[in-house]
Specification:
The protein is of the alpha+beta class and 65 residues long. It has two domains: 34 residues, no CATH class; 28 residues, no CATH class. Helices cover 18% and strands 18% of the residues. The chain has a three-stranded mixed sheet with strand order 1-3-2, with no helix packed on it. The longest helix is centred in the middle third of the chain and has 12 residues. The radius of gyration is 16 Å and the shape is elongated. The termini are far apart.
């Protein structure tokens, strides 16, 4: 698998038209998507909670450790 480096912060995310993503960022986000990283649940954490991986749902959910 080819590693795609994060574009330099001087590279704008959007092209001059304001609607099209720049090629560098598009390739980087596609690379991140290909990694199949576990996602976070949509449940908002409360103070003191940490992300805990749930192997049943394959998501990180808020919990106490």
């Amino acid at each position: 698998m080819r590693v795609v480096p994060k574009p330099d912060k001087s590279v704008p995310v959007l092209e001059a038209d304001g609607r099209t993503m720049s090629q560098a960022w598009d390739e980087f986000f596609a690379y991140l998507g290909s990694l199949n990283l576990p996602a976070f649940s949509k449940t908002a954490p409360t103070n003191g909670q940490v992300p805990i991986f749930n192997s049943t749902t394959q998501l990180y959910t808020p919990g106490t450790n």
